[in-house]
Design brief:
Blueprint: E1 3-11, E2 17-26, E3 30-34, H1 41-48, E4 56-61, E5 64-65, H2 70-76, E6 77-80, H3 92-103, H4 108-121, H5 137-149, E7 155-159, H6 167-181, E8 186-191, H7 194-198, E9 203-208, E10 211-216, H8 218-224
Parallel strand pairs: 3-8, 3-9, 6-7, 7-8
Antiparallel strand pairs: 1-2, 1-4, 4-5, 9-10
Helix pairs in contact: 3-4, 4-5
Bound molecules: adenosine-5'-diphosphate (2 copies).
One adenosine-5'-diphosphate is lined by residues 14, 37-38, 42, 82.
């Protein structure tokens, strides 16, 4: 997917401007959004996936203005928010099946095939019968990815997915995302950890106080500091 962001600004009702005049072009593959806490990463992502409206500026996804084509855009986008949590007392596979019932028209048999395929893709097939709320933190995050993939999105937007993960889970997570980005899914990943981006992303931007402080390749950024 090609995403063109022009003059994007988000000011909250309390007057705080979280994103200031951001101009970015994002192509296929994996794009990293780096920045410290409060930089505006979550605000940027919420606007991108149309759960929040920008104050100014435009976003074109494959030429479509996201404000004018919200329903269409939502079908193209999968989103994993930072505060994604489960309250459900469902088994892992049941949780995904429930999500699939809400967002697809598939019949039960096809849903179950899809659910197991997604579980396999994120390395959770072995624990499909475990209660979802009993999974480890890393596994829950991976289940979140599986859920975001149910609608077969062309764009996957993931907010700080590796926060709090141990190194092994972190690497596992990166590998899953790398695989996905090679299957024609554009991925935008936010993080405050340089290593999450340098090992996986071709392109990146660094946000600082709502402004783009750097854009280019991760190598280019590391050379600059
Ligand atoms: P990040 O994801 O990089 O931590 P956020 O987008 O969450 O950054 O926040 C950027 C700034 O905007 C922060 O100062 C935050 O407190 C503020 N902010 C976020 N959401 C709101 C909101 N709904 N209302 C007012 N200010 C907000
Ligand atoms: P992050 O961890 O990405 O910085 P925040 O903690 O800033 O995220 O935001 C968590 C939630 O709180 C979001 O829904 C955001 O909109 C809201 N929020 C953050 N800062 C403010 C604020 N200053 N005023 C109102 N809501 C806020």
């Amino acid at each position: 997917m090609n995403i063109q962001i022009t003059g994007l600004t988000k000011t909250y009702p309390n007057g705080h401007t979280a994103i200031k005049n951001v101009n970015l072009e994002i192509g296929s593959g994996m794009f990293g959004l780096l920045g410290p806490n409060g930089a505006g990463k979550s605000s940027f992502m919420r606007v991108l996936v149309t759960v929040q409206q920008a104050t100014a500026g435009t976003i074109l996804m494959d030429g479509l203005n996201i404000n004018e084509h919200r329903q269409k855009i939502r079908k193209l986008v999968g989103y994993l928010p930072q505060d994604f949590t489960f309250f459900s007392k469902l088994k892992t596979w049941e949780f995904l099946d429930y999500a699939a019932q809400l967002s697809t028209n598939l019949k039960k048999k096809d849903r179950l095939i899809k659910v197991d395929k997604l579980l396999d893709q994120v390395g959770l097939l072995d624990v499909r019968d475990r209660m979802a709320n009993k999974l480890s933190g890393g596994m829950k995050r991976r289940l979140g990815i599986a859920q975001a993939l149910i609608g077969e999105p062309k764009l996957l937007v993931i907010d700080e997915p590796t926060t709090g993960l141990d190194p092994e889970e972190r690497i596992r997570f990166r590998n899953i995302l790398s695989d996905l980005s090679q299957q024609d899914v554009t991925i935008i990943l936010s993080t405050h950890i340089v290593g999450d981006i340098s090992s996986t992303c071709h392109n990146m931007a660094m946000l600082n106080k709502g402004e783009v402080a750097f854009k280019g390749s991760p190598e280019g950024m590391i050379d600059q500091v």
